[in-house]
Specification:
Elements lengths: L8 E7 L3 H12 L6 E7 L6 H11 L4 E5 L5 H11 L4 E4 L5 E2 L3 H11 L5 E3 L2 E4 L5 E3 L4 E2 L2 E2 L7 E4 L2 E4 L4 H7 L9 E4 L2 H4 L9 H11 L4 E3 L5 E4 L14 H21 L4 H25 L3 H14 L4 H21 L1
Parallel strand pairs: 1-2, 1-4, 2-3, 6-14, 7-15
Antiparallel strand pairs: 4-13, 5-15, 6-13, 7-8, 9-10, 11-12, 12-14
């Protein structure tokens, strides 16, 4: 597939102090089987050699490579700027520390062009650490168990499965689809209707819910096309380098991003209940409980209060919250 003056795909790459990963990232993009692309790098306030590395890459390829710098605002703001600058019919998102397999763009574009009703395709990731040891082989499976969305009714379109199930939004509200933007290619027109919500964590999960809620059609590939690199500077709460306090704050931000969906998407009573249960579980078990285990009782109490506001009838939350209150009072008494 040859390059033209108007790119078919706009690759949007937000970056913040990841100069050490950029050579590998650019090599991954250069090796794509699909060549009709432009690259938009949004530097989110880096203080390293990012600009110089981007400039050198731009001089080495015939494609349009555009660089924008902004004060640090987080990945959602950086991606939204890249979307505003995009000229392609499709938008693909590259995380600077990941690797795309060579067929990633080609099969995504083939599928979107073969199925006009399809707006978004995504693929599973394989996770590897700094020594290339595999942490997971396919993110669509958790301990060998398929994610819930894989059981939704779907039909074949080129190499993908297109979800065609009236319960799609319900399932997406209850559990992550693992549809990270770094594995996704979307029609540019999707962003004419919705924007990435401005959260530093969870903006991609919230965006998926907003897209499904507005009727955009999504599909997925069964096989991996993105290698996810696990390292200490990952922002995920599951990163082993994160302290319990950091993991709690990350989880709380994810809950806030999902809360945004409840205000921006018309949900029926059942759907709102599904979403609030998920948000409450994040506040309670991913944010609050690790702090209980590290005796940060005051902070843990605040997260359990957030959980109870979304799900006030949960006996499990109340039981743990009351335990926290007693432990906090005892701890304060012992220190006095």
């Amino acid at each position: 597939m040859c390059s033209t003056n108007v790119p078919a795909v706009s690759i949007i790459l937000p970056v913040y102090n990841r100069a050490s990963f950029l050579a590998s990232a650019f090599e991954s993009i250069r090796n794509q089987e699909f060549n009709n692309w432009e690259l938009i790098v949004v530097d989110d306030g880096s203080t390293d050699d990012t600009h110089a590395i981007v400039r050198d890459f731009a001089c080495s390829v015939p494609h349009a490579v555009r660089y924008y710098h902004q004060e640090n605002q987080g990945p959602a703001a950086a991606r939204n700027l890249g979307i505003d600058k995009a000229k392609g019919s499709y938008c693909a998102f590259f995380d600077s520390d990941d690797t795309w397999l060579p067929m990633h763009l080609a099969r995504s574009v083939r599928t979107l062009e073969s199925e006009p009703a399809l707006d978004w395709v995504f693929a599973p990731t394989k996770g590897v650490d700094d020594r290339d040891d595999v942490q997971w082989s396919n993110s669509f499976y958790c301990d060998g168990v398929p994610r819930a969305f894989l059981r939704l009714r779907s039909y074949a379109a080129a190499e993908a499965r297109v979800i065609d199930d009236p319960t799609c939004l319900d399932v997406a509200l209850a559990e992550s689809f693992e549809a990270g933007l770094q594995t996704s290619v979307l029609r540019r027109k999707v962003f004419d209707t919705i924007r990435l919500p401005n959260f530093r964590i969870g903006e991609d999960q919230a965006f998926l819910l907003l897209a499904i809620g507005r009727g955009f059609r999504i599909g997925y590939f069964d096989t991996v096309s993105v290698i996810y690199r696990c390292h200490d500077s990952n922002v995920s709460a599951s990163s082993p380098s994160k302290t319990p306090t950091e993991r709690a704050a990350i989880s709380a931000t994810l809950a806030q991003a999902l809360d945004h969906v409840a205000t921006e998407t018309p949900l029926n009573r059942r759907q709102r209940r599904i979403l609030y249960r998920r948000i409450a579980d994040i506040y309670a078990w991913q944010a609050g409980y690790p702090l209980l285990e590290t005796r940060q009782y005051k902070a843990a109490c605040s997260y359990f209060r957030c959980a109870l506001r979304r799900r006030p009838t949960s006996a499990a939350y109340w039981k743990t919250y009351i335990k926290l209150k007693v432990l906090r009072l005892w701890h304060e008494f012992a220190r006095s």
